Please model this.
Amino acid sequence: MSLRIRFRCPECDDAARLDLSQSRTWQCPRCDHWQDLKAYQEGQLSACLLCRNRELYKKKDFPHWLGLTILTVACLAFLWAHGRYHPGIAWMILIGSAAFDGLLYFWVGDAIVCYRCGAEYRGVIPSAEHKPFELTIAERYRQERLRRTELESERKPTSQRG
Model:
């Protein structure tokens, strides 16, 4: 299985995708920034290939909007059936959607995400060092990004500020 990466260009913040089975270098089509990703060893991802950050987390590789849509439809169908005095059908809908959700959980693989740059890695089997998302670590990196943008805006001359 090949490693697929979805990330943002470090220079211009343009969205990008890369399949490492095809190429180990990437050039941004917008700003011509080059990124070398040759440090990847097959099956092992101990640090982000883009920003070299070692704090990574795993998440289910499933669109959150789709999961919430399934839950909303199931709840509305439950209420509709229960309102029509069909409690057996209503409970079958609710239990069936829970069973479907459980099957999806085991069927869908994991993606590894970098806290610092947000790069998403697919096609890598998570190891023991890839823990689930932790809000305290994410907040630390969010504060780091805020401080960095504040410092960058202070460095700009006053004629360039918008």
